[in-house]
Each structure stands twice: as C-alpha cells, then as structure tokens.
Amino acid sequence: MTKSHKQQGSLHPNNIHQQDYNFEDLCEVYPKLIQFVFVNKYGTETIDFSNPEAVKAINTALLFKYYNITFWDFPDDNLCPPIPGRVDYIHHLAGVLKSSEITEPISILDIGTGANCIYPLLGNAEYSWRFVGTDIDKKSLDRATKIIKKNNLTDFIKLKQQKDSTHIFTGILNETDKFSATICNPPFYKSQEDAMQANARKLEGLGGGNDSKTRNFSGKQQELWYKGGEKAFIHTYLYESSHYKTQCFWYSTLVSKKENVQGMYDSLQKLGATEIRTIPMHQGNKVTRVVAWTFLSKEEQKDWNN
C-alpha cells in the first residue's frame, strides 16, 4: 500500500481533511480521478497539482465522498476551489455564529458565489445552513443553478444576480432582509496581468513550469481580479455593509494580504462597527485570514433571535 498525499498546515479541528488523501476511496466515488493518480519518487500517491484537470477531479471526488454531492460541473475557465481551504472558512464562521448564540435557521449571504457554488454546497452539507448566493455573471449563476437542482438543494440555496458591478450589497439587500452572516472570497488581483504573473510564480513552485496557459486554478475576470485589487474590493464591501447595519448580524470576508487588515479596522471603526474579529487560517504554506464585523449594539444582538 503506497502512502497518500498529505494535507499540510493547521486546518480547523472540525475539518475532515486533516489526514492523508485516501485515493482508493476517492477514486471509487469518482473514477475519473484514477487517470491522474501516480506514485512520486518518495513513494507517495498523489496528483500533479499544476494540472487543472487533475485539480478539478480531486476536488470533485472530495465533494462526492464527504459532502453528499452527486453532481458538480462547470466550464474549465471558471475557478476550481480547493475544498479543504473553502470548508475551513465555513467551520471558522460557524464558530463565530456559535459564539453569538444565533439560533437556527442560519441564513448566509454568499457574495460572488461563482459557477461552482462552493460555499453554499459546503455550508449546507456541514451545518444545514440556508444560502442566498450572488454574482454579477449570469452564465455563472446558470451553472450554479444546474448544480443546485441536480443535488436537490433548491429549498436551501437561492441565487440572485448583482446587475451593477460597482456595487456589492446595493441592489441585493433590502430593509426586510435578515442574514446571520455574509461570506466572501474577494478577487485578489488588480488586473489580468497581475493574476497571470502570480500564477506563473505559483506554477514554478509546483514544478509545472511557467506556461501561463496551464493554470491550476483557472478563473474568470470577476473571480480573480478587480480594479484596485483586493484592497479596493474590500473597501467597497466595508462601506456598503455600513448602509445595512441591521440586515446582517456578522459580515465577513477572506483577506489574503495581511497589510490590508489594519486599514479595514481603521475604516470599520469610522463606519461604526461595534465588534471586529480576525481569524487566522493556515493551509500548507499559505496563510490567510477571515475578518468578521458587526454593527449591532449589545441590545440588538440579544434581540436578534426574537
């Protein structure tokens, strides 16, 4: 029996992907994965993580094996999310909600749900949360709708198009909406060129050369880059969240760049946030973080469940 590729890094204690990948089990639930599995020079069973088809296959297998998903397909030029890292965000957010004693049903607003619909799928599978997913791209929402229907999740996951790319919550939230939390994986890069350069460095580290056409993460414009990059996107996110202070208990977002966090705190304090939390997340050599904030007073928090 060969060794299997090991998940590195300090994942959330509730994350099922702490241990080595069991490729035998994964290939059994998703036979298309078999063609990508090989034994490397260290005697470890693994895949080529610089190959986008292999990456998509293993993440599909993980969904099939552990999250009761039976269909997950989208165009190859859409982002393919790494399941262990995505579900880590879900578990950390669950901890935030638990600490605030928010009762069920939990409802989450997913900003930029994408064609893969990954956060609603994982959040519903792990915690039975209900979701509204938003995106500016109609084709991505159409793909996500197909995934939702084929997995019989139409009662739990709804989708809504953001028709104005300059806004995030405006046009989505209204005065009667009430969400337990928001979740967001913002675009990290300032431009396509910025994204391609970062990918070339990533591929070199994976041993896949620097052919920018071989992108192990793929991704369309709205998924990867935003004018002004992560900092500009998050600034809009923070500012618009302050216009809907009582529509959501906790706002949250992933923040890739550590240097953006202090600016967020400064802005949120000016905007009237009553509490801000930063939660570090580790996967392999990558360190990112979730920043969560609320505008609710202590009294409003106590009355939330009423």
Written overview of the protein:
This protein has a single domain (75-303), classed as Vaccinia Virus protein VP39 (Rossmann fold, 3-Layer(aba) Sandwich), CATH 3.40.50. The chain has a seven-stranded mixed beta sheet, sandwiched between helices. A three-stranded mixed beta sheet has the order 1-3-2, with no helix packed on it. The chain is 37% helix and 18% strand. The longest helix has 17 residues, at 83-99. The protein has helices spanning 23-29, 52-66, 83-99, 118-127, 138-150, 192-206, 221-224, 229-241, 259-271, 298-303, and strands at residues 3-4, 38-39, 44-46, 107-111, 130-135, 157-161, 179-184, 248-255, 275-283, 286-294.
Compose a concise summary of this entry.
The chain has 306 residues and is an alpha/beta fold. It is built from 10 helices and 10 strands.
CATH topology: Rossmann fold
Reported CATH architecture = 3-Layer(aba) Sandwich
Mean pLDDT: 86
- Tell me about the largest β-sheet: 7 strands, mixed
Strand order of the largest sheet: 6-5-4-7-8-10-9
Range of strand content: 15-25%
The level of helicity is 25-40%
Report the uncertain regions: 194-201, 209-226
Q: CATH H-level name... which superfamily? A: Vaccinia Virus protein VP39
Q: What oligomeric state do these chains adopt?
A: single chain
Shape label: globular
- Which value, in Å, is the CA radius of gyration? 19 Å
